Amino acid sequence: MTRRLILMRHGAAEAQGPWQDDAARSLTDRGHADAAAMGRWLAGLARPDVALVSSARRTRQTWEEVSAAWEVAPPCEPLDALYLAEPGTMLRLLQDRSEADVMIVAHFPGIGSLAALLATGGPEQDRFAAYPTAGIAILTFPGGPWQDVQPGSGRVEHFAAPRDL
């Protein structure tokens, strides 16, 4: 059975105010619109069995916009561990999962670094370094549990950002 990993960076967020907690930052109007557009794009390609979402406000808002594209939204698990997580942390969280198709909504640069780490290469891999806001990569992996996923074992099926739509 093929496994699919969907990696998304949150939409454009407001600038951090001088006394504002970074995790409390909201999406801008553009961020909401971009996330909704990417959700419609994604719904035409894949539906995750579960979404692992950073507990930050902007990532939760991104998921709300994306998940509205499906008639029945996949379950969502907000995780503090995904807030500004490094690729290794995200990989460990993924390796604990049993679902076939998993989506992670998190932050830059971690999400782009994870995509680059897992991808076998291809023409899209160089875009991971800049991973634009609301960007989504869909990677596929050969059968077997997520515990078997290693660097360079995923194939980039799709990569898009709002400007590509």
From TrEMBL:
GO molecular function: hydrolase activity
Keyword Hydrolase annotated: yes
Keywords: Hydrolase
Protein name: Phosphohistidine phosphatase
Taxonomic lineage: Bacteria, Pseudomonadati, Pseudomonadota, Alphaproteobacteria, Rhodobacterales
